[in-house]
Every structure is written in structure tokens, then in C-alpha cells.
Write a structure and sequence with these properties.
The chain is α+β, with helices and mostly antiparallel strands and about 160 residues long. It has 3 helices and 4 strands, in the order ααβββαβ. The strands form 2 sheets. A two-stranded parallel ribbon has the order 1-4.
């Protein structure tokens, strides 16, 4: 006789109670820790290579032009973000370094007029996944190393 699923106080069967377990992540080689500063990242060859790849992509995509700092211009600051990216089996795929602008240092009417960020709603993702499951469609996940919005800004944004 099958064992009935264990239900929690909210009336839901949890993955752990139904026997589902996440695979233990396996790392063949020790990972370089995520750096706290860009200077410590430059000292590590793995993170330095990731930063160089990001910088090369920014140049290749003509993301910005080097110009003299204009007087009285609002300068939007940037920062480096670091993250380990893993394969589905838990092994390291690559070291990801991204240079991003700190949007909170922009000024309305100076660096931007309006903001809009297209985001897929979770209900839409669930609907598409349900359709794929019911129709037997293959589902794949991907991670883009360098994603750029190919839009033209009407404002000039100065960054450092």
C-alpha cells in the first residue's frame, strides 16, 4: 500500500517531505572567493580574466566613449559585481564580472526622463512552462554572458 504524502500545516506537500532532494553541489577545484573590492579581484587571475572579458565586451559593443569630464556634469558612478556561474551538475561554468552603473546617482531630467524595465511576470513564465509540459516541448535554460540593450539614449549620461 502506497504511503500518503506528508502535508504541512498549510495543506501543501513540500518537496523535502515527498522525497525530493537537491543534488549536492560538487566543485572539482577550489573556487576563488567572490571579491569584496575590485582591487582584490584584480589580484586574483580568475576574477581579473572575468573583468577583462567584461571590459572587452563593453568596448566591442561600443557601449561608451571616453570623453573629457565636462564641468558641472552629473557623474553617475559604477561598480563591479562578481558572481560564480555553475553548470546544472554544480561544477563551475565561469567567473562572471559585470560593470554596472549605480542608477540611484542619476538625476531626473538630467540623466533620464523616464524609466522602464520590461520584466516577464511570473504568471507568464508558469503559463509557458505549463504549455511546454503539456505539449511535450523541450525546455532549455541559458545564461547570457554579455547582454546589452540596443536602444539609443536621448540623454547624455556621464559615468566614472
Amino acid at each position: 500500500m502506497p504511503v500518503p504524502p506528508v502535508v504541512n500545516q498549510h495543506g501543501m506537500t513540500t518537496r523535502a517531505k515527498s522525497g525530493f532532494r537537491q543534488p549536492v553541489l560538487f566543485h572539482a577545484a577550489p573556487l576563488s572567493p567572490i571579491p569584496k573590492t575590485f582591487r582584490s579581484a584584480l589580484a586574483d587571475p580568475n576574477w581579473r580574466a572575468a573583468m577583462e572579458a567584461e571590459h572587452d565586451a563593453l568596448l566591442a559593443n561600443k557601449t561608451w566613449d571616453l570623453v573629457p569630464r565636462p564641468p558641472r556634469a552629473n557623474i553617475v558612478t559604477g561598480k563591479w559585481i562578481f558572481k560564480h556561474k555553475f553548470h546544472a551538475d554544480g561544477t563551475l561554468e565561469w567567473y562572471k564580472a559585470g560593470w554596472v552603473l549605480r542608477g540611484f546617482t542619476q538625476r531626473s531630467g538630467v540623466d533620464f526622463d523616464e524609466t522602464f524595465s520590461p520584466v516577464v511576470k511570473p504568471a507568464t513564465v508558469r503559463t509557458v512552462l505549463s504549455l511546454a509540459l503539456s505539449r511535450g516541448w523541450p525546455v532549455h535554460q541559458l545564461d547570457v554572458k554579455n547582454a546589452f540593450v540596443h536602444g539609443t539614449l536621448s540623454e547624455t549620461v556621464y559615468c566614472a
